[in-house]
Input
Amino acid sequence: MSKPLVVILMGSKADMEHCTKISDACKGFGLDTVIRIGSAHKTPEHALAILNEYEADERPKVYITVAGRSNALSGFTDGSVSAPVIACPPPSESFGGADVYSSLRMPSGIAPAVVLEPFNAALLAAKIFSVANAEVREQVKASQKRAADKILEDDASVR
Output
């Protein structure tokens, strides 16, 4: 079976740090990643060409979109691909954090998941792949065990 692929698509290079966190977390689950830049607003033809390139790739894949301000990228991506899409908008304090609302309401038939933390976006991608990939499933279980062990260790430290 081919190694699963996470295509991380950002609207601008300003979101690179957020995308790197997602990519690093994905690699921790044994997933291949690629980071690309394409804007639904400024370069829709280029963004669509990127999506078409990866749609032609036979590997199992999940797309993670990263776009702040007005997030058209996630809906644009979801409407253009057959694989799952996870919107992971970068944090913003501008306008009281209201940018996130552009990731929450989508037209009918457009259904990207919204996950706000980079690690959790990678975890969701891994869980999607784990349905059919035992190696990824074991990585997810190991991550869950590490998180549980940390809670138990922290509890013991405060007694």
The helical segments are 16-28, 44-55, 73-78, 101-104, 118-130, 134-157.
